[in-house]
Amino acid sequence: MSTRIRLQRHGKKGKPFYHIVVADQRSKRDGKLIEKLGIYNPNTNPATIEINFDGAVNWMLKGAQPSDTARAILSYKGVMMKKHLLVGVAKGAFDQAEAEKRFESWMSGKEKKIADKIAGLNKVKIDTAKEKLKAEKAVKEEKAKAIALKNSQLKEEVETAAADAENTEETKAEEATEDDVEETKAEETTTEEVVEESSEEKEAEETT
């Protein structure tokens, strides 16, 4: 029986995750499987991969053929490297101890790369958050300046209106005072004229 290691889709639309399975090459994508080897979730960053390492290595040694995506996942987790080293041991290229030493060295380098990637992603996330806060602060400061300017202009308008009103009242008061003076002068003139007329009438009577 020809076996294949491939992905079996699960999850909801837009956010799928996959089971890593061993199945008969002739079976349908979601058909009967022989064994489940792990889970692959591409929705996280970095992607989450859980794998039955020894089981995957054994199936690879038995001749199971991985799909392109499954091969990339197995390579990422070291399954392909482990298989390569075990084949080397079987051929007498080196012994088991040397194979383990080489694999541990490879895994150490791989783990460092993963750790560096995660650290880089965290740094980007932190820097992005800082830039977002900085931008929000700048927007708030601009709004505060705009409000302060508006309040200043409003205060100036109120003060100007109050000054204009005060000037208007003073002008009216001055005009009223001038009118009173003119009226007083007119009354004095009228009084003088009446007095003169009375004097003239009195003189005329005395003459008669």
Strand order of the largest sheet: 4-3-2-1-5
User: Which class best fits the helix and strand makeup?
Assistant: alpha+beta
The largest pleated sheet is described as: 5 strands, mixed
Low-pLDDT stretches = none
Mean of pLDDT: 84
Helix-residue proportion: 55-70%
Which H/E pattern describes the elements?
A: EEEEHEHHH
Task: Describe the protein in words.
It is rod-shaped and about 170 Å long. A hairpin with a 6-residue loop joins strand 3 and strand 4. A 5-stranded mixed beta sheet has the order 4-3-2-1-5. The longest helix has 112 residues, at 96-207. Helix 1 (53-61) packs across helix 3 (79-90) and helix 3 (79-90) packs antiparallel against helix 4. The mean pLDDT is 84. It is built from 4 helices and 5 strands. The chain is an alpha+beta fold and 208 residues long. It has 2 domains: 3-93, Ribosomal protein S16 (S16 Ribosomal Protein, Chain: A, 2-Layer Sandwich), CATH 3.30.1320; 96-187. It has helices at 53-61, 68-76, 79-90, 96-207, and strands at residues 3-12, 15-24, 35-41, 48-51, 65-66.
